[in-house]
UniProtKB/TrEMBL annotation:
InterPro entries: FAD/NAD-bd_sf, FAD/NAD-binding_dom, NADH-Q_oxidoreductase. Keywords: FAD, Flavoprotein, Oxidoreductase. One of its GO terms (molecular function) is NAD(P)H dehydrogenase (quinone) activity. This is NADH dehydrogenase. It comes from the Bacteria. Its cofactor is FAD. GO terms for biological process: aerobic electron transport chain. It comes from Sporosarcina newyorkensis 2681. Its EC number is 1.6.99.3. Residues 3-282 form the FAD/NAD(P)-binding domain. The lineage of its organism: Bacteria, Bacillati, Bacillota, Bacilli, Bacillales. The gene is ndh. Belongs to the NADH dehydrogenase family.
Amino acid sequence: MRKLLLLGAGYGNMRILLRLLNKDLPKDIEITLVDRTPFHSLKTEFYALAAGTVPDSEIRVAIPNHEQLKVVEGEIKEIKPGEKEVLLVDGQTLTYDDLVIGLGCVDNFHNVPGAEENTLSIQTIGKSRTTYQTLLGLSGGATVGIVGAGLSGIELASELRESRPDLKIKLFDRSPRILRDFPERLSKYVKDWFDKHEVEVVANSNITKVDQTVLYNHEETIDVDAVVWTAGIKPSQIIEAMDVQKDRSGRVVLNQYHQIPNHTNVYVVGDVAALPHAPSAQLAEVQAEQIVQVLRLLWKNEPLMEEMPELKLKGFMGSLGKKQGFAYLADRTVTGRIARLMKSGLLWMYKWHNG
C-alpha cells in the first residue's frame, strides 16, 4: 500500500479528500488524516463563534467516512522529511510515502510586549470558544479592543456589535483607512457602517505594548476590559523547526508542483505555503486542486505537466453582522444585503459539498 499522510483538517486537505475519495482513488492508496479535533472547523467563521452569534455546531463539518481513510486525533510534534516520518505528542510515529502539510498558522504578535499573554484569539476553535466565554462575561459598558483591522478584525467587530450592543468596541487599524488595498468605495462603506453602529475605528494605530487592562497606542494609553488580537499570522513552531527553505515570513518555499524542492514527496498547502497571494481558505482550496492533479499523475506513473496553471482567485467576501456585507469580485465592489446573501450562500454550498 502507498501511504498518503495529510496533516491538518483545514480547507486545503478537506478539498484534497473531497477530490480523492471517489471511485477513481486507486485501491492501493491508504490515506491518513491527522488533526487535533475529529472534525473540520470553518475557520472563516470563528469570528461569529467568538462573538456568540452562532453555536459551535454551526462551524463544524464532519470528516468523510471512507474505507481507505483513517483519521488520527492528535497533536503533531515534529515533521521529519528525511526519514519520511511524523512524530505526535503522544509518542506515535506515522510513516508516509506522500505527505501534505496543511497545518495553518498561529497569531503573529510582532514581538509586542504583553500581546501574547494578555490578548484573546480566534485562530483555533478552542481559542474562539475561550474568547466567547470571556466576552460573554463582560459587564455592560465594558471596552473591547480589537487589534488588527483585516477581514477577521472587521467581521469580529461588526458581529460583536450585533451580539453585544452594550459594549464599547475599538478597532485598531495600522492603515489610514479600512481595507486600504482595495477601492475607496469599499473602505467608505465599511467605515460608514462602523460609524453608524458606534464602533470606533482607530486609524494609523501602532500598538507597542499590551497590559491586562491597558493598550499602548503610540504614546497614548487606552483602558480596556478585554483585547482580541487579529493583527496577522505566522507559521507555527513545527514549521519553523523544519530544515527547509523559507521566505521572509517563515513560509515554506515550494516548486511549481507545490512540493518542497529537496523532498518532492512532501507538499505544503494553505497558510504556511510561500505563494504570491495572501493566505486564505480560497487559496488553499485552489492549491489543493492542483496537488490532487499532481498526485494522480504520479500514482499513474505519468509525466507531470511542464508548467502548472496560475493560481487564480475570484476575490473575497466579508460580513458586517447578519444583514450587511461587502465583496470584491472580478474587480467589482458589491456592498449591502446582496453581498451578505452571497457570503451566506457560499457557506451553505461549502457545507453541502462537504456532506
